[in-house]
Design goal:
Layout (H helix, E strand, L loop, with lengths): L2 E5 L2 E3 L5 E8 L4 E10 L6 E7 L4 E3 L7 E5 L3 E6 L8 E10 L7 E4 L3 E5 L2
Parallel strand pairs: 2-11
Antiparallel strand pairs: 1-3, 3-8, 4-5, 4-9, 5-6, 7-8, 9-10, 9-11
């Protein structure tokens, strides 16, 4: 069973910074991407940032230049700087991966961590 556990959310003032962490447990054969998505009330879940196997990073347009994604073997991080009220949302860790003995990739999600940007 693959599990993802996020941490690091909270309340921060506009212009402030937060770092989100996601720890993965469970056996995986191959990871395609690790990343972060967010969902604000009444809105669709959107890509914030992802790292593709091999190291390429992709960012949502609204966070480019402010957020930085990084990873190590079992964790993925999101450094968020210059936060704005519109960054407020539930942030979800995502891993797209194949498990041992399975030829298909599947998406795995964490439970989410709330980020609120307000003065």
């Amino acid at each position: 069973q693959v599990q993802l556990v996020e941490s690091g959310g909270g309340l921060v003032q506009p212009g402030g910074s937060l770092t989100l962490s996601c720890t993965r447990s469970g056996s995986i054969f191959m990871i395609a991407t690790m990343g972060w998505y967010r969902q604000a009330p009444g809105k669709q879940r959107e890509l914030v940032a992802e790292i593709v196997n091999g190291g390429t990073t992709n960012y949502g347009d609204s966070v480019k230049g402010r957020f930085t994604i990084s990873r190590d073997a079992a964790n993925v991080y999101l450094q968020m700087n210059s936060l704005k009220p519109e960054d407020s949302a539930a942030y979800f860790c995502n891993v797209r991966a194949r498990r041992w003995g399975n030829s298909n990739y599947a998406d795995y999600w964490g439970q989410g961590t709330q980020v609120t940007v307000a003065s």
